[in-house]
Amino acid sequence: MTATRPPVALAGGLERGAVVAELDIGGAWLVDPASGRSGPGDVVVRDGIVTAVAWLEGEEAAGIDDRGVIVAPGFIDIHAHLREPGDEDSETVASGLAAAAHGGYTTVCTMANTDPALDEPAVLARIRDAATASGSPVALLAHGAVSAGRAGEQLAALGELADAGVVGFSDDGAPVRPALLRNALAYAGTLGLPILEHAEDPTLTTGAEANEGYVATVLGLRGWPVAGEAAAVSAAIAVLADVVADVPTARLHVTHVSTGAAIERIRAARAAGLPVSCDVTPHHLAMTDEWVAGARRWAWEAVDGDGDRDPWADRALVAPPFDPACRVNPPLRRPTDAAACRAALRDGLAIAIATDHAPHHEVKKAVEFGLAATGIDGLETALGVTLAMVDAGELTLARAIEALTVGPASFLGLRLGRRVGLLEGEPADLVVFDRRASWRVDGDSLASRSRNTPLLGRELPGVVLATIAGGRLAYAAPDEG
Amino acid sequence: MTGRRIMTADEIRRAVVRVSHEIVEKHAGTDGLVLVGIQRRGVPLARRLAAAIREHEGAAIPVGALDITFYRDDLSLVAQQPVVKGTDIPFPIDGRTIVLVDDVLYTGRTIRAAMDALVDFGRPEAIRLAVLVDRGHRELPIRADHVGKNVPTSREEIVRVSVEEIDGEDAVTIERVEASVAEPVA
Amino acid sequence: MTEAPVVAEVAAASQAPVEAAPVEVPWRHRHLLDLDVLTWPDIERVLVTADAMTEVLARPIAKVPALRGISVTILFYEASTRTRVSFEVAAKNLSADVVNIAAASSSVTKGESLVDTVRTIEALGARMLVMRHDRSGAPYLAAEVFGGSVLNGGDGWHAHPTQGLLDLYTMRAHLPGGSVAGRKVVILGDILHSRVARSNVWSLTAAGADLWLCGPSTLLRGFEAWAARGAAAGRRFQVTSDVDAALRDADVVMALRIQRERMTGGLLPSLREYAARYGLTRERLALARPEAIVMHPGPMNEGVEIAPDVATDPRSVITDQVTNGVAIRMALLYLLAGTLPGRHEPGGAAGR
């Protein structure tokens, strides 16, 4: 990490979890998507409350740009897997929240595919106890399972889970079959909660290993066709259209959408007035199926006009092929699909960047590609990947911060339980990062228990200096005094 | 790298003639005699010896070619070593006297490898060795029966034999090189 | 350690004249997992070395001590007699110490991971590992953890590099002029599931052949896109389900086995229909040039992809493929062994 400027002065010796007694940020670039305002400014925090947010003008603002220290609301992730209970070797609530804080996140929504599944309040209570015991100020919210045991047969205890405070329902990891999805959308709609659907037609993806396309053909991997996602999205939208006639409050959210074909179906459904939304992951925005062949260039470097470039012809293969760290569900797609994801993010169709943080212990990944657990560890690298997009001109900084903060907040609505922004008088909930600095992704720097990311060994832009959640310190970079 | 010429084309020619007489003299005739040249430059030398023997004895001696690449005891040289499709021994060797022919005798390891190879082809009555140049520094108990020229050398020197069939001219030169450069191998 | 596949050099060099001259380019590949990383000079080096091995195989004692003292383990996760035995024969002809593991009978079936198996094999002294596995990419995982050399004997649908090379070697031995450049080569059959087809795409496009892949459209999925890109990269080949157009004036016809065990159902109506529409019969073979050669990687389903009288036709070089397979595998074991660390003679450079 490069030496930080004086802007951030944190009263010394603060322990993780403690209330931030005194924090003065002088002359940083503030981004406040709630008010739509960005610019040079000061932030003052006393006893955990933001006492002042001052926008600088004229001479005071001179020399401060959006390439240095940046202050933004704390990031919110609506899709992460914290693995506890059931797979604590890969991640626990404590390590997951530590990873979140390191990544600039102050709120994380954990998915229900734990063991036992989060299909009844007792499991939720267990997870909440673990969060409290961790001492982390990062807010942990949870999605309940759609079906009992995530088995896809009967509905889980949706009402009880709603009463217990889940923020949505999802069988993520697996799709919900259309007949059950219909009932789930209706029931959850009356509870005022959305269904986050993992859109996949399992009959088209049997045995699939990688995106069906040029790379899979050359590498001899079983393909996961675009139709596998597009058909599932079409079916889910059709079901939604029937449900809203009876339950106008029903809401469908397609999580980790990865293909242009699915995005276009969602766009058309929204244009027709249906209550459907979607999010995209950092890896679907920035990585492609080329990475499975051994490329490591960003997705925007792999498109040529309207087509995909050829990694073999471009001599772009720099890592061994078949790296299980690249196996994820839905799979890394073609460069043009990643471009469609970025376009959806730019124009707002994708309301949020959601990490789909999927930690896996090494044992589950150090196997043959087609047998490797699917998933990429993403809470700590999301900011870096997002900034790489901003640096490349693919996304504005303002839109990026929106997608990490107010976008997910709008999805959560009242269930978030707080306002999002740089707000005087509210408990401090913000992230401070230095865009001029970079850091190397490796075993030493990651707080997650797992290391399963193809970004291992890579330098990413943007070093988080401090993450403050609910007025308490969640993370401070080691150099801070 | 410039070298010092230690044998001219004429000197090579005379040496070949002398050695061809010595071979026949030692064998007391030409019955059962075969020549096997070691790739690469031992092969044209073997052919010249056979031609000389034919001229002064009137007898045609079989000539074979032996590539000892697969018999070397140092695999790390595989990477630099060109592979030549070069073993051709189209006659039986059981009971025959084989005269191995090579251009330079140095540590003796090439000849050890050649003998290992020959033993896989059959059981000769005797194996002898004829070389154009013996430069000393043996690492194995191998000696040549017939030598064109003895040339004392130091380990920092390289002896290069050129033959018209491969290099366009006949000459033997000696060059001083850096220790790290490997001796050119056939 | 990773190898970036070479395309541009290969494309440029494929017009180079082919001669059996000594090859001076050093061999730098510690593993051979796929043909995409081999340059044309690399391929030529293998072929020239295989020529030398062919001569060794013709000797009364078909053995050389080149790999003496080196332990080679053959680890096959897929049932295969011919290839597994071919590798064993090749290694033994080089005087290597061979351990041959048919994984179905080993602790692998008790759930030992590939990584653990490879580490155990290395701890038992293996310096070279020949591997066949039913999952694409498995040898790359082995290469990450194995300290010696890994030679891929076939992985899933992905690659069968020794087959690609022995096919090229066999073609050159039988084609006039000893070259496949400009010759029409047709590979006919279940392309989708075939690692033999994929490896032949790399080797034959490098060699400048006029390559055609042919089969029912369900078994050609994805290859049209590869062919389109190949054209842009100088690695041209054709894809078609029109078997007559494919066979017309072909110089080489290679039939692939319809791999029953790899089809997960629904790809073909029946084998009878396949045999009728795509089987290599005498009538279909008549569309090719009169002196065209017939090849098959084996084992054959006679009566399905290839008619029995075609398999035994004088134009069939299928048994040559088997012989050449041993020579090619000897060549590769020899070249890879040269990259093993620690194979040094005390006293430095070899002298005379």
Structure write-up:
The complex is a heterotrimer of chains A (481), B (186) and C (352). With 481 residues, chain A is an alpha/beta fold. Chain A has two domains: 8-71 and 427-476, Urease, subunit C, domain 1 (Roll); 74-416, TIM Barrel. The radius of gyration of chain A is 21 Å and the shape is globular. Chain A has helices at residues 58-61, 93-102, 121-134, 158-164, 178-191, 214-219, 226-246, 260-271, 282-286, 290-293, 335-347, 362-365, 382-391, 397-404, 406-412, and strands spanning 8-10, 22-32, 37-46, 49-55, 69-73, 75-80, 105-110, 139-144, 168-169, 195-197, 210-211, 223-224, 252-254, 276-280, 303-304, 307-308, 350-353, 430-440, 459-469, 472-476. In chain A, strand 8, helix 4 (158-164) and strand 9 (168-169) form a beta-alpha-beta unit. With 186 residues, chain B is an alpha/beta fold. Chain B has a domain at 8-70 and 93-155: Rossmann fold (3-Layer(aba) Sandwich), CATH 3.40.50.2020. Helices cover 28% and strands 26% of the residues of chain B. Chain B has helices spanning 9-27, 42-57, 109-121, 164-167; strands spanning 4-7, 33-38, 63-66, 97-105, 126-134, 146-150, 157-162, 171-176. A five-stranded parallel β-sheet of chain B has the order 3-2-4-5-6. In chain B, strands 1-8-7 form a three-stranded antiparallel β-sheet. In chain B, helix 1 packs across helix 2. In chain C, strands 7-6-5-8-9 form a five-stranded parallel β-sheet. Chain C has two domains: 8-12 and 25-160 and 323-337, Aspartate/ornithine carbamoyltransferase (Rossmann fold), CATH 3.40.50; 162-321, Rossmann fold. With 352 residues, chain C is of the alpha/beta class. At the B-C interface, strand 4 and helix 3 of B face helix 2 and helix 13 of C.
